[in-house]
Amino acid sequence: MATAAKTTKAKATKKSAPKKETNAKSGKSMTRTIQVDELSRVEGEGALFVRVKDGVIKECKFRIVEPPRFFEAFLQGRSYMEVPDITARICGICPMAYLMGAQQAMEDALGIQVTKPIRDLRRIMYCGEWIESHVLHAAMLHAPDFLGLDDVLQLAATNKDVVTNALQLKKLGNDLLEVIGGGRAIHPVNTRVGGFYKIPSKKALYALKDQLKWGIEASIAIAKLFGTFEFPDYEDDYHCVSLRHPDEYAIVEGRVVTNRGIDIPVRDFHKQFKEVHAQHTTALQGWTRDNEPYLTGPNARYTNNYSQLTKLAKEVAKEVGLGTTCFNPFKSILVRMVETVYACEEALRLINNYEEPDVPFIESTPKASEGFGMTEAPRGVCYHSYKMDHNGHILKAVISSPTAQNQPQIERDLFGVVERSLDLDEAALKHRCEQTIRNYDPCISCSAHLLRLTMVRE
Amino acid sequence: MVVTTRTKKTTKSTKSGAERRYRPKVAVWKFASCDGCQLSLLSCEDDLLDVVGEIEIAYFLEATTAVIKGPYDLSLVEGSITTEHDAQRIRKIRQQSKKLITIGACATSGGIQALRNFGDVDHFIRSVYARPDYISTLRTSSPIHEHVPVDFELRGCPINKNQLVEVINATLNERAPNIPHVSQCVECKKNGTVCLMVAKGVPCLGPVTHAGCGNLCPSTDRGCFGCFGPSEAPNGPSLARQLEKLGMSKQEIRDFFRSYNGNAGAFRETSEAYD
Fold it and tell me: Could you report the predicted ipTM of this complex, rounded to two decimals?
């Protein structure tokens, strides 16, 4: 862990050399401490600590203080059929990332191929999760940062229409999840290994078409509004990690690719990327095997897979000032809205082509096996791997959440942002730091499900 | 489903001299959990602005940076107690809260993370963590009512958002919430859902599980798996014997009762009989 922390500092110092002069006053020894014990507008409990001495950052820590819940431990011995529903309880905001990642891993282990309609239904649900999660974060949690407000209620006082539309858009995402997921969006009940318990009717899905058409327009309008925000001038040379699929903007499956040439199957994920236990946080941090932080999430997806977005999504991106890549973490709010436009379009396309499957799920028989699964959670890649015995009882479970993986990169961003913002007063600097963390839409409940450890001995 | 506050229509003078209605101060607190239950409040999309128009959100970190000091008229508590620090924190919250309501399975029964309560925690931590010394945790995950008095426990993993609005509404108006403590079977009968266990032999916890989810699983051709915990006066052993007849193994029956509400009295006792 000590190695990990040092690496953050070393790399951050090297890579994010300030372009502007900082106002460190020579001659005077001065220590500034920025401490936020309870980070707001994030899911879960997080804290940050930055120590600056004589204009030089001495310490920069993003802490996840959420108590560990030991999922990977108590999954041992449970039936493979129970695992998806249990792992869903890692996160109430992105349960699909856990339901579907676990289901895919079990299907991979048992050699099951789901049918096209089942796959399409899963992708529609996932679009719903992107919409509800992206809009919740972008409009309700992140946007107030750019407007100097405490929360969305203050925004509602001056811009009620925007907030009302954002709430309706979020509801649309939840509706997609509810219609397919058996009546509730948080921890849906209708999904299972091999498919679904009950086939959602064509009629129920068709009923959402008008809302989706409205959703495309509404998300474009919100994207354009956010495009008028002032964004801090900050970029980093990110190592972007995402899924890529040959035929579509990857959401539910693909190979793991990076903008530095890595292209591997999901099962090899932990050959290239590792988890490290750092003392100051209850979530395992993600590092490349070469001890570099990496980025996963909207900006990484956008940078790696821009060409696969729809024509309309690309037009919106252009209009709000995005290029074909995005290395400014503050602009992740724009990428989230572009992805929301895409998710509405994609869900509509899939619903238009939907044919009810003949059977709701593919039967499975347990056997001693190992399987892997990965999906693009709203916050980035979410990795699952399981080993089971011949009865289907879990022997080993490994789950890597996107926020846990992003921690070292969040710390590096903080380092870089603080370095360039030392001339700000305390309150403004503290706010800038919090904003830097919120860029990641950190889902702290997920990342502190904690548990498996890779001891790094070097 | 709109909240109105009839009590305490005391008015306060504002600086401009205009009078405004007293809005009860509501705080939302999080302990070990997935965030899903407090997210349910934000998922009341159609009613959210109306609800927050009637109350003053005094503390809700997931949604706002603004913090108003206690005391609070109502505290909603999500999550279970798993650290010494949290055990102290909930006491302080209780001291500052006129009413305290737990929301969801974690706060009400200990949640899925209470599966640790059934094992040897020391062995558990040692076998899992390379650096156990970095980890500070209690031996158990316990519900809020084991630490402080609770005024109402709202069930569910996750809670039903309509029930949440009802409980907030009832509490602020000093009436009992309209939340029936009957079993899931009653919901099936009311909705005309065919009994899966009788008609298809599908294992179902409905006979012992608290109603409230909206009859979701049985109407999705899936047996209830107990998200809302034990109903009033459940007969776990009797249901377990029926599950045996349906061909479930001892371990399957144990695990069926031992999930999101595995630590709740009746579920716990039944599962322990199958250990």
Answer: 0.92
